[in-house]
Amino acid sequence: MNCTKCAGKMVERKGTTPEGFEYKYSKCTKCDEEIVNMKQLHSVAQKYREMKKYTAKISKWGESFAVRIPKELVKQYELKQNEDVTLIPEKKGIKIVA
Ligand SMILES: [Zn+2]
Known about the structure:
7 strands, alpha+beta, 3-stranded antiparallel β-sheet, 2 helices, elongated, binds zinc ion, Pemi-like Protein 1, Chain: D, two-stranded antiparallel ribbon
C-alpha cells in the first residue's frame, strides 16, 4: 500500500485509543500521512462493541458520595465488603483499583 498523497511507502503502526484499545494504522514514511483503512477501523469498532459499559447512580452518604458497583463487577474483580480500594483521579474519570 502506498500513500495517497505522495505515493510514498506506508508502514503499519500501533496506536492506543483513550480507552486503552490497541489499534493499527498506516503511516507514510515520506510525508507522515496517517491512514486507518477499513479493516483496521472495523477491528477497533469491534473492540468498542465488545466493551461492556456499566452505569451507576451517585447517592449521598453523609458528606460523601457513594457509587453502587454492579454485582457483575463485584464478582469479576472479587470485591469484598469493607475492602479498601484506591481511587485514582484521571483526566476523564476516576479509576477504582482494588
Ligand atoms: Zn505520503
